Amino acid sequence: MIINSRNRRLRTTPALRALVQETVLTTNDFVMPIFVMEGSQKQEPISAMPGIFRRSIDLTVQECRELFSLGIKGVNLYMKVSEDLKDNTGKEAWNKNGLMQNTIKAIKDAVPEMVIMPDVALDPYSMYGHDGIINNGKIDNDATNEALVKMSVSLAEAGADIMAPSDMMDGRVAAIRQGLEENGFTDVGILSYAAKYASSFYGPFRTALDSAPKENQDIPKDKKTYQMDFHNSREALDEVLKDVAEGADIIMIKPGIPYLDIVSKVRDMIDLPIAVYNVSGEYAMLKAAAQNGWLDNDKAIIESLTCIKRAGADMIFTYAAKEAAILLNS
Ligand SMILES: NCc1[nH]cc(CCC(=O)O)c1CC(=O)O
Ligand SMILES: [Mg+2]
């Protein structure tokens, strides 16, 4: 029997394989999430996230310089706020002299070309560990939106380039857009976490910021009334289309690797840039296996990030950004 069509023909040599390669991963694809804390010359490791640290502003700025010189063009900022600054209004989030605002100014000063994308959500500032204001035992959508607008305007004043609302309230993209326009921030963009699922893969992140929902019978014990149910995919398309209509510039899907079917479907549907968040739990799993010698760390990182891009991501938020950039540059 004669086989006319042989797919192996184009896999014979590295040069041939390079010629037919469809997806190319570069440092332009990465956004590095960064954890910041008070103090100076401080750096604390985060358990369950080997290689990732919480740093004071001075060391954060130094890290941003290094990231930019490696080719990484965006950072996504998260603050570890002390318990005494947390309440049910989230007002520390729009303190002109808050940790986030000071971090943004310091990075802008030192690395002006870096695209600064602060997380917009109340959980690090909430005494309850929720992304919203709680009224009568429930997350109050519209009151939360008003807080997110104040937070966004304050972060834009500090010099942020792109707001990254990760809260999943309804209508917040339109509200933030309007707030930015009214205050003259017409060039400040919105990267909307449009399809963000209630996921167990956020565990290590919540330890990093001490931001998990508190044990308290008067408040919801998880985030399922605002983040999406992982059984659903059509609902994700609906969430995405609404955020596009409300004026989002970039659409985020989160988590990443277990949710690449969603990324692919959204890619077929919209032409706006898509961001995918390779979240803390995904990073932790890979690192745990690599530390046990069960996976080749470097190969697994490059493969998983390339697969996220292949599914349709234009940019990837990943804790492996720096490591991957070093690998790609070498
Ligand atoms: N607004 C909260 C927020 N922003 C980013 C993450 C998770 C990121 C990660 O796990 O890497 C979370 C956690 C959550 O929703 O509880
Ligand atoms: Mg929505």
From TrEMBL:
NCBIfam families: PRK09283.1. InterPro entries: ALAD, ALAD_AS, Aldolase_TIM. It is an enzyme of class 4 (lyase). It comes from Kaistella solincola. Transmembrane segments: none annotated. It holds the Pfam family ALAD. Homooctamer. It catalyses: 2 5-aminolevulinate = porphobilinogen + 2 H2O + H(+). Signal peptide: none annotated. The keyword 4Fe-4S does not apply. Belongs to the ALAD family. It comes from the Bacteria. Pathway: Porphyrin-containing compound metabolism; protoporphyrin-IX biosynthesis; coproporphyrinogen-III from 5-aminolevulinate: step 1/4. Its EC number is 4.2.1.24. Keywords: Heme biosynthesis, Lyase, Porphyrin biosynthesis. This is Delta-aminolevulinic acid dehydratase.
